[in-house]
Each structure stands twice: as C-alpha cells, then as structure tokens.
Amino acid sequence: MAEAIHGTIEDFAVRPLRHDFGRGWRIAVAVAGVLVIVLIAGLAITFLRGIGSWGTNMPFVWGLDLASYSWWIGIADGTALLTALLVLWRAPLRLAVNRCAETMALAAAVCAGIFPVIHLGDPLLAWWTAAVPTSTGIFPNPLSALTWDFWAIIAHLITVATLVFIGVLPDLALLRDRARSCRARKLYGLLALGWTGTSRQWALHARAHRLVALSMIPFIFVMQTVVAMELAQTIVPDWHDSGLPVRLVISHLASGLALAFCFAGILQLVFGLHDEGEWKMLDQLGRLVLAAVLLSAFLVGITGFVEFLSPASRFDAFAAWTTSPAAGISWVSVLLSKVVPQLLWFRTVRLRPFWAIVIGMSIAVGIWIDSLAILIIGLEHDLLVQPGTIYVPTWPELMILFGSMGLFLLIALIFVRIVPIISIYETRASDEELVP
Amino acid sequence: MRVLVVACLSDEDAARRLHSRLRTRHPTEIHSPIPIEGVEPPPDTGARRLPRIAATAAVLAATVSLAAQYYTGELAYPVNIGGRPVNWVPYVFAAVALAMMCSALAAAIAFLRLSGLPDLRARVFAAERDCQRGRDWFLVSVEVGSDDCENVQREVAAFGGVRRVEVVP
Fold first, then answer.
1. A161 exposed, middle or buried (CB, 10 Å; 0-12, 13-18, 19+)?
2. CA separation for the pair A405, A39 (Å, rounded)
3. Do B31 and A198 touch (CB under 8 A)?
4. Shortest Cα distance from A219 to chain B (angstroms)?
5. Inter-chain CB proximity A425 and B33 less than 8 Å
6. Please, what is the Cα angle at B107 between A93 and A95, to 5 degrees?
7. Distance from CA of B28 to the nearest CA of A (A)
8. Which of A195, A205, A214 is the mutation pick for testing B, counting most B CBs within 10 A?
9. Distance (Å, rounded) from C-alpha B88 to C-alpha B69?
C-alpha cells in the first residue's frame, strides 16, 4: 500500500518533466512571457527617461517600487523561512510543500533584486553600493540603507540557491540515471556533479542540507528588518517607529506563508492528489498561515493601543492610518490580509484547495496594499512638504510591478519543468534514514 | 592494478547484507537513490566536521564584515564628523547576512569536497547503467586487486538478489 502511494507521489512529482506535459503549462508560460516583455518595456522606459517617468514626486519620494520591493522580500523570506523550518523539523508537510516553497523563495528574491537597482535613478551606477571604492575613490557608506540592500539581496540569493541546490542534488542524479535522451543525460549529469548516492554522500548530504537551512533563519529576520529599518531610520513620523520593523517582518512573513498555501492549493487543484495526507497538509499549512495573520493583527493592534494611551498628537501614525484621506487603502489591506483569513478558523475551509488559493492571494494582495499604505500615508503626513495631490502610480511603475509577477511566474514554471516538484528521495526514505 | 566489481541489486536488504559481508575484507561502497537505513558511512566521512566548518566560516565572515565596515565608515572616510561614537548597530545587518551566506556556502563546499564531488567521471558510471534506470536499484561496488577480482566476482554473483555483476577497470 505504502509502495503504491509512493509510486503515485513519484509519478505526480515527475509529471511536469514529461514531454507531453499539458497545454495549460504552455499557456501559463505564454502569459508569463508576455508579462516579462511588459517588465522589460517598463524597465526600458525607466532607464531611458529616468525615474521622472514615475508618479513619485515631493513629498512622495517612494511609491510602488519600494512597496513592491518590500513585498517581494516578504514573500522570499516567508517562503524561505517555511522551507528552512520544514527541513529542520522534518515535518511531513515538507514532502508536498518544500520544493515549491524553495522555488518561490528563489524566484521572489530575483524579483526583489530588480527594485533597489532601478530606484537608484541611474542603474549603471548600482555597483556603487558594493563594498568597492567608487570612481571617486570613496567606499560606500556602511550606514546607508542602500549598502544593506546590496548585501541582503546578494546573500539571500546565494543562500537560497545553495539550499535549493543541495536539496535537489539527489533528484538530479535520479533524473540523470533515468534520462532517455543524451542531451538530458548530459545536462542532468552536469548538474548532479557525479552524485552516485554512496553512504558517505548521503550522510554528508543530510547534515549539509540541515546546516544550510539553519543558516537561512537568522538572516531572514535581518533581511526583513533591513527593509523596515530603511523606513524607520527616516524622520517621517509614521515610519520613525521602533515597532515598525517587527510589524513589517511578521506581516510579510504571513504573506510568504500565504503564497506557499496558495501554491499548495493550486497544485492540488491542478494535479488532483486527493489522499488523506494531502488534505492534512493543507490543514496544517492553513493553521500556520492563520497563526501568522493573528500575530500580525496583534502587532497592528498594539501600535494602535500604544498610541491610544499616549497624549494626542498631530503626528499620530495610527490615527493617520485609519482616518486620513488615503486611509481607504489601509482599510482595504485590513480587509484582505486580516479579515478574510479569519475564514481559516473553519476546518472545512482549510481543507479546500479553492479556499487556499482565494485566501492565500487575498493575504498576499492585502500585504502588498499594506506596504503601499505605509508609504503613501506616511509621506502624505510629511513634516516639511504639504502635498497638493495624493500619489498616483504611472504606467511604467505598474508595468514593472505586473512584469515582476510575470518574471516570478516564469521562473517557477521553468523550474517545475527541470526538477521534480516533490522531492523524490524524501518521499521514499523514512525520517530515520534522512536524519543522521 | 585495482579494479571495481559492481553488483546490481533490486532489493535493499540484499544490498545491505552484501555490503556488510564484503566491507570487512575490501573497500566497499553502496550506491542507492535513497539513503539506506542501517548502512554506516565509512569512519572517515567527516560529517561531524561540517557544523564546525560552517560555524568557523560564519564567525570569520562576521568579523571581516564588521572590520571592513568599521574601516570604510570610520577610518577611510569618517562620516561621524560631529564626534559621535561609533554606531555598531547599522553594521550588524551586512555582518549577519554575510555570516549566514558564508556559513551556507562553507557547508555546501565542505559537503561537496568531503563527498568527492564534483566527480563527473566516477568509476561506477562505467558500469552498465540499465540497472539504474528502474525505480528500485542498488549498486554495491567493491575495490579489489586484479588477482582477487575473479574470486570476488564469483562470490558476489552467487549472492542472493544480485541481478548483474560487472568489472570496471
């Protein structure tokens, strides 16, 4: 019986690798490809005409670019945290979710990497943020958030890529051994680096995989804090708050977990695995998402409560967040990222892939709107300049945002065609064998 | 001259038994698509060294990062012209990010090095690969002198569960 289930899971895992894999995948790649073209066009407009082509203007110095950056970082961190915890705990959930979460973490980090470069104004000088003397002979300022961005993105990309590679190595060797075409055998052979599955290699692999997963955890928090500190270190009243980094870290982690939940729902709906373990997986992931959302709501509540206990001031961030002319966006974010997920209290909802997709997307969109609300309402509330009108994004900004979603989708779609979407060796080995 | 006698098996238990029978007399390895319970890796595997290597890399990277940031921010081009004390907190972000990246990279590189990877021309690849195309396959490879080769080949072939035996020069 167990053998039969493993056979089914294995078939499911390698189904996207077959030549005759469904037309749906090709349509999805075409849609993602069109969006990537839109991204390239948006970037080209920005490069040629400068960031003056965006809707950002005093006092709205930041807009969609930073909101999207913060959002992508959140997704990258949330999914990376999930995958690291699953590897460390050897949770049964990892079999179904881990590879997808790893893929999403990698793709989201690539998408996040675009934004710090383009919002510099002159992308050709992006290398000035690296720790090398610039053409003037001066090193970049280590107190600048731009240098933190550089290290955070580079380190995240390399570490996630390392985690993915180590996790996938035995499966690449398996695909090399089963490859029918010479080209596929050569490609997988090169990627598998000559893995032969000796007892020595398995013992080292298990330990290295867990060590790399362990390395992910501290710097996920550092990376999200970097984004939040970029805001908190300014003098804008709404942002200059020691609670903001914690609030952003938790809400963005919820967004990453929600996207993994949504992706697990899509996998189940599209590929149709209907055994008990799969339902249990959605249930557990749903509980995890609900816990993150509740924690995030608690932190927002605490911010409001602290402000309520303090003497009233015209710089009150929470009051601006809830009652300013642009407060509509923050209420929409509350509805999508805090209210809708309350449906996850019901087990019947947690077990439905359809609801996993709806609620996961709702949280992800809600958190993106939350990032925008923090920026717009904060800057609208500026100390120096009273804005005449509210910030409105322009076409190039929207093109870059939707294009980055296409890039994310394209990376994920290509990845599922190259490596199995479920770790084959982990489905076949028991935990005692995997943990030395 | 040393040769490799490679046995192909489709049964995990048989592979484990064959491995434990031969490993006391010859350098023997077991190759499998999944980790096999009860097969001890060779004593010189060095798996316990990996955490130490990763931790050392993390400490070194954090130290170098803090020193580099201190140098660039305080010595090469001091931005604290008002005489403020050194603020170490902003240096922590890049230091932790680099420490964790180097820790992960060191663990990965040490894993590859200790595993003998990359090794695109591993001797076991020279054996017939039909065996590895099935869903369940296990290889047991024994390194022997050419004088001993025939005896070992005969002994392995007679072992229950062995589907094929090959000699790789």
1. middle
2. 9
3. yes
4. 5
5. yes
6. 10
7. 10
8. A195
9. 9
Residue with tokens 């390895």: B29
- B111 and A207 in contact by Cβ < 8 A? yes
**How many beta-carbon pairs below 8 A join chains A and B?**
196
Which of A138, A159, A425 is facing B104, going by the closest CB pair?
A: A159
End-to-end CA distance of chain B: 9
- Name the residue with tokens 């003098």: A235
Would you tell me how many other CB atoms lie within 10 Å of the CB of residue B80? 12
Q: What is the pLDDT of residue A2?
A: 41
Q: Which residue has the higher pLDDT, B150 or A111?
A: A111
Opening angle at CA A253, ends A249 and A255, nearest 5: 120
pTM of the model: 0.84
Q: What is the pLDDT of residue A336?
A: 92
What is the C-alpha separation between A14 and A9, in angstroms, rounded?
A: 9
* Closest residue, chain B, to A433 (C-alpha): B37
Q: Are the beta carbons of B30 and A140 separated by less than 8 Å?
A: no
Contacts of A8 (CB under 8 A, 6+ apart): A273, A275
Q: What is the ipTM of this complex?
A: 0.87
* DSSP-assigned letters across all residues of A2-68: HHHHHHHHHHHHHGGGSTT--HHHHHHHHHHHHHHHHHHHHHHHHHHH-GGGSS-BTTB---HHHHH
Q: Choose between A301 and B44: higher pLDDT.
A: A301
Contact criterion met (CB below 8 Å) for A361 and A41: no
Which residue of A175, A210, A215, A249 is the best one to mutate when testing the B interface, meaning the one whose CB has the most B CBs within 10 A?
A215
- In tens, the pLDDT along B68-118 reads 888 887 887 776 666 777 778 888 888 988 999 999 999 999 999 998 888
Element (H, E) at B106: helix B89-115
Which stretches of chain A score pLDDT less than 50? 1-6, 431, 433-436
* B82 close contact with A: CB closer than 8 A: no
Partners of A196 on chain B (C-beta within 8 Å) are 31, 119, 122, 124-125, 139
Rounded CA separation B75/A298 (Å): 44
